[in-house]
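Annotated sample (chain length 195).
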Amino acid sequence: MRRKTFDLLMTAGGGVLTIVLVVAGALLMWGYTFANSNVHNQLAEQKIFFPAKGSPALAPKEIGPYLDQYAGQQLLTGPQAEAYADHFIRVHLSEVAGGKTYAEVSAASKADPTNQTLKAEAQTLFQGETLRGLLLNAYAWWKIGEIALIASIVSFALAGVMLLLTVGGLVHWRRTPEEEEFPPRHTPQEVLAGV
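Output written by the structure step:
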């Protein structure tokens, strides 16, 4: 095979790979933007605010260290959603019904339908666990968006490297003599001379 043909094939492959990486980077950036704005908009609609700085709600050691940084702010981001779900709602839910889950309290409530305390605890746990699950879902989508952002940056960086290699391949292709072969052929004398 002529060296110029090989160089042209490799350069064309590099050009195609560059285009694929740019398209992938653009799609990943769009995914990041979509996930981030959706999480923000959906959380903003809920109008959830962290307790104000110095509030007794932030005093427990299971809550304060995790939520002090967000005191008084509106819940709008994935990390805020995770903190609120895991260090505010979860802590308060553990205080309902002696730390039992909604499933446990609901089963007990069904077994004793006249017990209003169990019924109220089941309702509280259901609402709290549902909100906690929704907030953690928002956090998960935020995290997926962050991963898409990192992948997008890597994709664009690799596209840049491939573009440089493709340009280098074109330069090499133009400088390569027409008669040069790939892989180079050696005469028996050249092979023996190397021994």
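Annotation: DSSP finds six helices and no strands in the chain.
Annotation: Residues 78 and 142 are 5 Å apart (CA to CA).
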